[in-house]
Design goal:
The chain is mostly helical. The protein contains 20 helices and 9 strands. The strands form 2 sheets. Strands 4-5-6-3-7-9-8 form a 7-stranded mixed β-sheet. Helix 3 packs parallel to helix 19.
């Protein structure tokens, strides 16, 4: 066992004790806030700087390498910015179909198109958008909490705790540091929620419409949003109409704003799911997927009753001690998503919301978001990336529980802060020292630079044969690292299965991702190979090859041929 494992046991017991003591204390003994508005502003600047440091430091090298979906998003953005088509040959698609069934939502791709046109390409630039969105998520979560707790005498303390908690949250730090479409989703959500809360506070029709448009933009950022956002908007609209917090006119204007922004994506869905004809023009495309994404992401309808309890259990594991069956790219062992030891206070906050019958608007907003995410988790194969919209609401309920603690005892609240700080220091140390070792199988360090070097040697003249050892969709990294011409790719690509849920290329141009049985055969004299360390046994003892090393992958070629 590691030190963090012992710490988790101790901290969990301490948090359980804090909850129990807070409940036992019958009267609210803490009558005074201890952070002024001026102090809160200064402390939040420090928190924001800390959030920025955790998300920007070593961005190009931690994680080391590139995950295949990152490469897909980066390459799609690169060729759209420079050639005006995606890798399937469609000009400016409303929704790039990437792998054939999607897998790279339009918002992050088109944000990267803008970034590439302004700043060029590169791993740091590819990851900069999620990192900036991560910092802004901390900022808007803090502002949202200040609005929601405006009548709470501890609004400064609770808002600062919210900003601090999200700034150091393992799940949020990790997702902010690499470029997957779902990784900007928390920002899209909290920004839309902030505008909605602000509209509610000011009873502003313009702000309601703006927040509605922001929710519509969420729909472009990740597939899970197409279920969570409509469920949330329908239920919150019903609640606001019934409680007369919004007028029929304001609701109608908001629906109109949502519909206008959502219309292009709706058009795409109608083409794909209702059989409307594709639209193919020089300026934009509304095209069909080559395959539906079902088996990998969704639970079959007939299997939902049998999977219901296990999926619900996965939700609660995910927001408490962690579900290690989830994708490794979104958590670090020993820390879960929201730290393993915080769940007693988080569940206290959720229980308090039920006890108070969701009278507080904040409980309603984040409670309905939890409900929408729980419904989503029942119909999909649970994973941290698919449940990405769940963790901001649960972070709120942690703050809600902490609000109860501080109302009973300021000293207990300080103890909560100390445990969080200790956990954050441990996570920061482990992440920046060891994450690259832990995530080697995910980000494939060295391979991208190796395949790029191989292409520098051969150009388009001789063949490049690549290993598949320890790799996932290496063709995608080859496209990204070499800035490969999309027209040549489309003309020459050989897919393993054209209609597969995820189309994978076995070869394109002079690249072949199938190693020959005997690479020393004279037929391959002029060719270049990218091999794993395991593959080097094939040329063991043969000193006629030059071997260039790249973090576990090797570019191999005949010395006298190049």
């Amino acid at each position: 066992m590691r030190i963090i494992d012992y710490y988790n046991y101790f901290a969990t017991i301490a948090f359980l004790a804090i909850v129990i003591i807070s409940i036992i204390i019958r009267k609210k003994t803490n009558s005074k806030a201890f952070v002024s508005d001026k102090m809160a502003s200064a402390l939040f600047v420090f928190i924001l700087l800390m959030a920025a440091a955790l998300r920007l430091y070593g961005l190009g090298s931690i994680p080391l390498g590139l995950q295949q979906d990152e490469a897909s998003i980066g390459y799609e953005a690169y060729i759209l910015a420079n050639f005006g088509i995606d890798r399937n040959g469609y000009p400016w698609p409303v929704y790039p179909i990437t792998w054939g069934c999607g897998g790279g939502s339009p918002l992050l791709i088109y944000l990267n198109v803008l970034s590439i046109r302004l700043f060029g390409t590169g791993i740091v630039k590819l990851r900069l958008i999620p990192a900036i969105c991560g910092i802004l998520t901390v900022f808007f979560f803090y502002l949202t909490l200040r609005l929601l707790f405006d009548k709470n005498k501890f609004k400064n303390e609770l808002s600062l705790l919210g900003g601090f908690f999200l700034a150091i949250c393992p799940w949020h730090v990790i997702l902010s540091r690499w470029s997957l479409d779902c990784n900007i989703m928390p920002f899209n959500l909290i920004f839309a929620v902030y505008l909605f809360v602000l509209a509610s506070k000011r009873n502003s029709t313009v702000l309601y419409a703006t927040s509605s448009a922001a929710f519509a933009i969420c729909m472009y950022s990740y597939g899970a949003a197409t279920i969570v956002i409509p469920l949330f908007l329908v239920t919150i609209s019903i609640y606001y109409i019934v409680t007369k917090k919004i007028s029929s006119f304001q609701l109608a204007i908001s629906i109109g704003a949502f519909t206008i922004v959502f219309a292009p994506l709706l058009w795409f869905y109608l083409v794909n799911y209702l059989g409307l004809p594709e639209i193919y023009t020089e300026y934009f495309t509304v095209n069909r997927f080559t395959s539906a994404r079902t088996g990998e992401a969704f639970v079959a309808f007939s299997d939902i009753p049998g999977k219901f309890l296990s999926n619900i259990a996965s939700v609660f594991l995910s927001v408490s001690v962690g579900d290690e069956q989830h994708t490794l790219a979104h958590f670090y062992p020993g820390y879960a998503t929201l730290y393993k030891f915080t769940f007693p206070i988080t569940f206290l906050g959720l229980i308090l919301a039920f006890k108070d019958k969701f009278k507080e608007p904040s409980d309603v907003i984040f409670g309905l978001l939890v409900l929408a995410n729980v419904i989503l988790s029942v119909i999909v194969v649970p994973d941290t990336n698919r449940m990405v919209l769940m963790y901001i609401p649960f972070a709120y309920f942690f703050i809600r529980g902490a609000g109860y603690v501080i109302s009973k005892s300021g000293r207990l609240f300080v103890i909560v802060l100390i445990f969080l700080l200790a956990g954050a220091l441990s996570f920061t140390k482990d992440y920046f020292r060891n994450y690259n070792v832990y995530a080697t199988s995910i980000f494939m360090p060295g391979y991208g630079e190796a395949i790029k070097r191989a292409y520098e040697i051969t150009g388009d003249d001789d063949h490049i044969y690549s290993t598949y050892d320890g790799l996932s969709s290496p063709f995608m990294l080859a496209l990204y690292y070499t800035d490969y011409d999309p027209y040549k790719y489309i003309e020459t690509v050989e897919y393993r299965d054209e209609l597969a849920e995820f189309r994978v290329a076995d070869a394109f141009g002079n690249f072949d991702f199938r190693l020959p049985e005997d690479i020393t055969n004279t037929a391959y004299y002029n060719d270049v190979f990218v091999l794993s360390s395991n593959d080097l046994a094939g040329i063991s003892g043969n000193d006629s090859y030059t071997v260039e090393d790249f973090e576990g992958y090797h570019v191999v070629y005949k010395t006298d041929a190049h």
